[in-house]
Amino acid sequence: MRRRAADYRRRVRRRLSIWIWLFLVLFAVAGCVLIYLQHNFHDQDHNQDQGQDRLEQHVLDRNARSIQVTRNKLNLTKEIGSANSYARQLLEQMTLAKAYVVIAKEHNNLHLAWQLSSKIRNTQSLLSKAADPITQEEAEPLIISLSSLILKSQDAHYDLATTMMTMKSHIQALEARANAAMVQSAYFGNLAAESLPKNLHCVNVKLLADWITNRRIKELADENNNSPRLSDNNLYHFCLFSDNLVAVSAVINSTVSNADHPKQLVFHIVTNGANYAAMQAWFVANDFKGSMIEIQKVEDFTWLNASYSPVVKSFKKLGFFDLENDLNQKYESLLNHLRFYIPEIYPHLEKVVFLDDDVIVQKDLTPLFSLDLHGNVNGAVETCLEAHHRLYKYLNFSNPVLSSRIDPQGCGWAFGLNVFDLVAWRNANVTGLYHYWEEQNADGKLWKSGTLPAGLLSFYGLTEPLDRRWHVLGLGFDVNIDSRLIETAAVVHFNGNMKPWLKIGIGRYKPLWQRYANTAHPYILACATS
């Protein structure tokens, strides 16, 4: 057969080689593999820091499932899961986990301690970031893993007895540290409350200069100290024991400003030698509406010595008399205890009203002198409207000396405004009772410190309750006192560390004190701006 010409031949379709097809398929597969590997490598690189945690989580989850099957009785997740709040469950488990961290470290099981710490951090992070209530989906992984670790800790060797003993020792150590911190805080708080601002020290210096250079001031002071009005029981007698000049001045100024007959008022002040001259100069040079003011210093009470007073004896034992420079500290402390020696200090008086230097008087106090105390020695406002002012809160009734004679549920009362019947006081020998209780507390086991516990014991069964409106307390620490209660109070008391003459004083109450503080006096103005 003859061949056709080339132009008339049928075109032949060329087929791709099978090898080419195989190459294309392999290339596509390789591309997919590369994409997958790249994606997987990216994820591994992104989670590099969490890889160990994921492995641990996987193992813990697997262990938790097996533990839930084999140890249902110790399944903490199921026990705690009955609570409504997942946050509370996490907090409870986190607290227990923290305890096991301490125990694990003590047993040198650092890996378990690291695992627990890691889950504690995750729990803390979840709790801190949660704006809404934590859901089951968020909490369940952590609850399961924490439960597993807690059970793992129990399986290791941290049984209940070991846990209790270890935690008990840690709790005791923490309690000791907390008690020490509380004592230190109370000490520094009292130190701050008793300290005087620099400008008030400046006022004392100026007044001391007046006392030294102005002979007339000394003459007037001698006349006041020898006045027959000081022992006239027909007048109204008030006593204050303090080394704070401006505070005492505010108390007296507020008392005479609200009295119906201020000229019938007599104020008896006892201070220490360091402030005696300044107080004399201040009260002689300023008029307090014709009232009589007597200034004494505690150093002149030679009868108040270690052979007579247990508290002076205790000061001597503590070394207050070792150095001359310690005398001021001794007398500042002793001023707080002079309230138990009022009949000895004022032997001719029959009735007095005792005032603290951190009170402000808002009403006429002379009606207090006509109150019937029903044979009692002390008239005071009781503070037992709340349970924490019962006697057992102030005193240690584990001591049989107290428990056999005093009712622990007895009502407490407050110093600051007290009406003392000195005739009844002498008949009941209250000062002797005070000495007895101070001697019983020589080791500090009946009460820690302060004069109120000694007063509660010395005047036990000898106190007449006064109307609450006579004496409102708390202006030195409580910012939420009812304004109506303050307005109707005869006396407001800035008891607490936030005194009104300090910067830390509560601003809401400061105007009550500043109104009577005579801040416009030239010396106070000069010292405030210097």
Automatic annotation (TrEMBL):
GO terms for molecular function: polygalacturonate 4-alpha-galacturonosyltransferase activity. The chain crosses the membrane at residues 16-37. It is found in: Golgi apparatus membrane. Pathway: Glycan metabolism; pectin biosynthesis. GO terms for biological process: cell wall organization; pectin biosynthetic process. Keywords: Cell wall biogenesis/degradation, Glycoprotein, Glycosyltransferase, Golgi apparatus, Membrane, Signal-anchor, Transferase, Transmembrane, Transmembrane helix. Its EC number is 2.4.1.-. One of its GO terms (cellular component) is Golgi membrane. InterPro entries: GAUT (IPR029993), Glyco_trans_8 (IPR002495), Nucleotide-diphossugar_trans (IPR029044). It is a single-pass type II membrane protein. Belongs to the glycosyltransferase 8 family. This is Hexosyltransferase. It comes from Mikania micrantha.
